[in-house]
Amino acid sequence: MDIVLMFRFEIILAALILAIFIMSLRGFDTNVKCFLNTMNVLLLLNFIAGWLPLSEGSYFSDFFRTNGLIVLQKNIINLGLLLISLTSYAWLEQSKYRLEFYLLMLGSIFGVYVMLSSGHILMLYLGLEMSTIPIAAMSNFNLKEQRSSEAGIKLILSSAFSTGIMLFGISLLYGAVGNLSFASVIANLHPNVLTLFAFAFILAGFAFKMSIVPFHLWTADVYEGSPIAVTNFLSVISKGSVIFVFLTVLYSLFGGLKEAWLLGISIVSILSMTVGNLFALRQQNAKRFLAFSSIAQVGFVLVGITAASTIGSASVVYFVLIYLLSNIAAFGVISAVADSTGSESLQSFKGLYKSNPFYALIMAVALFSLAGVPPIAGFFGKLFLLTAGMKSGLYVLLGFAGVNLVLSLYNYLRVVKYMFIDENEAHLAPLNRNRQLTTALYICLIGLIAIGFVTPIYQYIDSLCRF
Amino acid sequence: MDILSLLLVFPVITALGILVAKKDKVVRWTALSGSIVQLFLAIGITAYYVSLRNAGETGQMLLESSYEWFAPLQIYFSAAVDGISLVMILMTAMVVVAGILVSWKIGKQVKEFFFLILLLSLSAYGFFISTNLFVMFFFLELAVIPKYLLIGVWGSGRKDYSAMKLALMLMFGSALVFIGILGLFYFTGAQTWDFQEIAKMHIPIETQRILYILLFTGFGVFTAMFPFHTWAPDGHSSAPTAASMFLAGISMKLGGYGCLRVATYLLPDAAQELSWIFIITASIAIIYGAFATMMQKDLKYMNAYSSVSHCGFVILGIAMLTKAAVTGAVMQMVSHGIMTALFFASIGMIYDRAHTRQADELGGMLKQMPFIGSAFIISGLCSLGLPGFSGFVSEMTVFVGSWERTGVFYRVATILACASIVVTAVYILRAVGFAIWGTVTNKEYLKFKDATWSERSAAVLLTLGILIIGLAPFLFIHLIDADTTSIVSRFIAVVGK
């Protein structure tokens, strides 16, 4: 029983994938509403099942391991999965590829689980690949659009490139250590040229996936070209899960090289924050805007990561949870507006508060959360990252973070200004609200307002990180 | 529930009441009654505090309470008050009531407007009562976005530009503050945000220097300290009346209070060593603000620049580090808060009727609207420091306190500050002469009606505040005396007074 419980995330997911196959054989997916609602219910059950109690442990000579923190991370991913499925309801309803969407998304999540639970670099690598390849297919969903195909190609090429670099780093590491299980790497890692090179290459691989500057070049184009649901998935699930893994890789795997990576991480952190915010200044496309905003946000996450301690991982996990809710809410509103106006331009948000106060308020809360304005949860998330970062004593980094807080506020306020202050010449009619999207937005809204005040959440994360 | 938390619970309840209210009339009355309750609560807390003190309570801050917030990070919602925070709370409560009264006629998005005003008041109360630096910072930041929206949506003139400038500059200030308090958190050894705990620790002077500059500058941005004052004239003049009252009356005081309570009090050694920097910036602000005011034709810009000058006195008083100067700074904060609120309120009333704020286009207001004209004159006279009004008492105290610092540098700064009074007299009297006295220049103005009941009540309330401080300053000094003494005792070694 214990084993079943331990593998329950993977087992449930496999069952879900199987269920989708059976549904497709039966032609169930042609019954659109019924199919989508069933999927949402199944994903809700999947999310609830994640909270069953479970024992910690490892299997297959450490290839697979699990503990409280990993379970929490998987649960956060599950929450994101459910919310994304809800927010993309309207799009899936008229898309031909709803079945494939779920199939590929769940496949990617399976890779994420493998990656999160891995206790061996080989598994880690497999998981990372498994989670990326389906996304490349997903970003190509608008088959008739050129930019969508371009997005797919860009994603697959850049991910292949980053994988190559990472594999090279892994092989160097193998040469230095002689074994790729986490335990033996931790035990045998000594700072020397070979391991430093290995680290640098592996870092580059991760940097691609998290779109850290200077490895961010694919991000904006892919975000813009993909359907909104896929962009949402990319920015939240794909990025969030890699951040989780990155924590483990840095803190335990390369913990011995801390002196070396501290400097490297701070430099890319400063670059990401600054470049992300500066490029976001001039974006008029909502998805490109959020792409650069997500680059800047990752820069902030890296500030927290430099703490290399309990408080560092607690604040990062906490932030990712908040970031997930904020981004899903923002993309939800963008998809609602884009569905009715047919435009993804930020200009189409002008005067939104007059015509659609509900969407405007949700968007404002999401943007304030991203900007780190109280009393929205993002405020706490960002400040805890900075608090953690202060621990490492990198004052220059904090100075840049402070400047970037101001810059990012300008970016997000620009959109708020469009919605609340500016008038729209073309009057925007009240948008249709479907139940699924509204539910998801309410969940995000409640989460974003409550997370700062329901402190057991932070305490729980903190207690999981102290092992 | 302890009594201090009620200060935060009431605005929240009022704000929620506003959200569920359907009719604009209900919204207005909810906001007003909520803020009046708040005023009475503030008076009640003060009375309670005084009775505790009289009964022999010796703790530095009283009515302490603490709730867990983010315990692993040492963030507790801790509240306590001393005399200084109490006078700030009283001032806030008065200005909020008055602000709601003068906004009675606002017709655009009434619910949102009053909700944001209530949010602002919540942030001010929270800031003044919390003793945990992180929580203080939370409340400091809480007010930035409501200000942005108030100016952007309800403002006039170059509102987009002003609102954005204000939000960005205040965010910049708070980023400095945050890095500063992070420093305090990590360098005290005990890793605590509680400022009473930090006050007991010994922080090495090298660290103090950096943190003092960061914190004083950060809070200084909120006080419109030179050279970070540029948000104030634009922001104040573009904001709707109630928001200007709040911005100049309360928001700038958050900065002053922070400079005193956090930067100066917690880092006494650095304050002794480096306060000359802020004496220089304060002197520049005082003189520059006064001359800039003289050049203004727009009444709101005039008052905004004069606020820069008057808040210079606050910084000067704090940076001089003598007991009288610090007392004067606290009095000036309260006095300026009330006085400038009255000033903005009367300008707003005139603007509502005449639709212009240019001093030379107005004229004869006293004849046509005796009440509003008088309110304008009272605030003007208070601003130029006429005896009997609060401005005189507080500015005098700052001057006397500054004069106590011997040395050519301090004397020059004091003399410069005193000289600004003359300039102030020029611009105030000129404005009063142009706008208020004389004959009615424009036939249109003959149709104007005098103040409504709500405007009258607001002006009376604020005038009462000005007169109480002006005529019975001992009440005020009695309330804050012990606390300024305890703050100043940390510098006595150097300053000698």
Unreliable parts of chain B: none
**In angstroms, what is the radius of gyration of chain A?**
21 Å
Number of strands of chain B: 2
Helix/strand/pairing class of chain A, anyone? Answer: mainly alpha
Please provide the ordered H/E string of secondary-structure elements of chain B: HHEEHHHHHHHHHHHHHHHHHHH
What is the succession of H and E elements of chain A? Answer: HHHEEHHHHHHHHHHHHHHHHHH
Q: Reading side by side through the largest sheet of chain B, how are the strands ordered?
A: 1-2
- Category from helices, strands and their pairing of chain B: mainly alpha
Number of helices of chain A: 21
Mean pLDDT of chain B: 87
What is the percent of helical residues of chain B?
over 70%
Give the N-terminus to C-terminus distance of chain A in angstroms: 25 Å
Q: What spatial order of strands do you see in the largest sheet of chain A?
A: 1-2
Mean of residue pLDDT values of chain A: 88
Helix proportion range of chain A: over 70%
Shape of chain A: globular
Q: How many extended strands of chain A? A: 2
Rg on CA atoms of chain B, Å: 21 Å
